[in-house]
């Protein structure tokens, strides 16, 4: 006679889906999206530029899932911009953000677990100077708040920033435009 | 207080209580060690604390082979290298660190060099670089606050390169931590107060942080109770060995808690203030603790309210309506700080330190944002948030 219905009855969390072979391509795709979006954001958003400006010249960092990827690598160029170097680079990384397992990367990149919570859950390791890693996390957070829908960004961040819809559409739109421009430029350079 | 995933690890044997030091020879033998070297500093030796350890070895059939008593407050790779050479020359086979944070970190560095048969400590800097167990290593803390006897990290300055080398490895954890009330009996009141507030902060931040977990919470709650019940008793009667032991245990328990759950904004601000204004770590913790809890109320109000039980006791907890417990917790902490200010002039506000100027606050806030502990704070913190907390603490 139990008439109560579980609130999550019938809802299958993404993490428990048997995504098997889909996980790796999804994480690889998301890593490329994040890398390229970060590059574009650093060309548009002043706050991200301010953070990047405080990194050493030529600073290289990567984010990867252990043991063998997927991965994206970025480098500081000029005063305050980031350049997406691709899914691998011959340049050694100054700082590396490493997920212990592909599933942990999937949890974060499918916005089921925030970046800070992933650190707290011992899923994400920092190899390199912590102060630089903190700047990178702030860049990632800022980018996510600008380009993701609020509902999704709220899952990834500890606090959704105080930005109006107008600001979000305007800056987010410029980031997407810059991202496309970078992609076209990249293709033309090939 | 629980969460979906956590890790907890503490393999350190705790040897605590009356005549604990006398257990060291036996504990060494169980690890097949018979030629221990003591590493300490001039202050500890001058206070006669090494004599307690030497007396403990009398009639044990084991001798201390060497005593190095010149560890500076800010140790360096050169000091570590010098001590390692003495260790090798004297054919020692184990290390007993007797002291506070600097002595313990230096000893961890020495243990790396002598175990890896190396002279270059920088080779082993970083996370997880060490891959095999080191020599038998015991720690006898002489302050009750840092919890270094149960942590897996060490930070040692490389003065030639001008950098601080961090070391993180499970193999840096001591085999045993020896808590003997004789070792903290002569600790002066203001250091007793500062270090106890350090332990209190470790415990509270480990519970309120993002990485809290049920096991470290249990250690932390017990540590808070021990500090709140025994700190004033020790200041009333410094030779109260039972209360001293309680504080030493609180420090170790808080150390176990925070080395598994990490710390938050109090430490981010405290590390920055300490580095910029050269204030002792425990004092920095005392300065920021209530203001950071106020800041974190929005996301951790329920947890902060539960801290009232170990802090103020069952009667106060029961008499305080649930909704008012978070504020009462912070009020109780402020009362403890007022009492410490009255008894040993332990500053409660930045302005009371006489060593911080208001125009340094912006720099402290900026540095705090780059401190690794900030990511474990339950509330997001930006520059203006950090400045607001600093202004409150002014």
Describe this structure in words.
In chain A, 49% of the residues lie in helices and 15% in strands. The model of chain A is unreliable at 1-12 (pLDDT under 50). In chain A, a hairpin with a 5-residue loop joins β1 (60-65) and β2 (71-77). Chain A is built from 7 helices and 5 strands; from the N terminus they run ααββββααβααα. In chain A, α1 crosses α7 (165-189) and α5 packs antiparallel against α6. Chain A has 190 residues and is an alpha+beta fold. In chain B, strands 1-9-6-4-2-3 form a 6-stranded parallel sheet, sandwiched between helices. Chain B is an alpha/beta fold. In chain B, α4 packs across α5 and α7 (214-236) runs antiparallel to α8. Chain B has helices spanning 24-30, 42-46, 49-57, 77-89, 101-116, 189-208, 214-236, 241-261, 265-277, 281-306, 308-312, 314-319, 325-344, 350-353, 361-369, 383-393, and strands at 13-16, 36-39, 66-68, 94-99, 126-127, 137-141, 153-158, 163-168, 176-179. The model of chain B has no long low-confidence stretch (mean pLDDT 95). At the A-B interface, α4, β5 and α5 of A face β5 of B.
Based on Cα principal axes, name the global outline of chain A: globular
Across the major sheet of chain B, the strand order is 1-9-6-4-2-3
- Globular, elongated, flat, extended or rod-shaped: what is the shape of chain B? globular
Order of helices and strands of chain B: EHEHHEHEHEEEEEHHHHHHHHHHH
Radius of gyration of chain B: 21 Å
Largest sheet composition of chain A: 5 strands, mixed
- Tell me how many strands of chain B there are: 9
- Give me the side-by-side strand order of the main sheet of chain A: 3-2-1-4-5
Report the average pLDDT across residues of chain A.
87
Fraction of residues in H or I helices of chain A: 40-55%
Major beta sheet summary of chain B: 6 strands, parallel
Derived structural class of chain A: alpha+beta
Number of E strands of chain A: 5
Q: In terms of per-residue confidence, which ranges of chain B show pLDDT below 50 for 5 or more consecutive residues? A: none
Helical fraction of chain B: 40-55%
Please identify the oligomeric state.
Answer: heterodimer
- The end-to-end distance of chain A, rounded to whole angstroms, is 68 Å
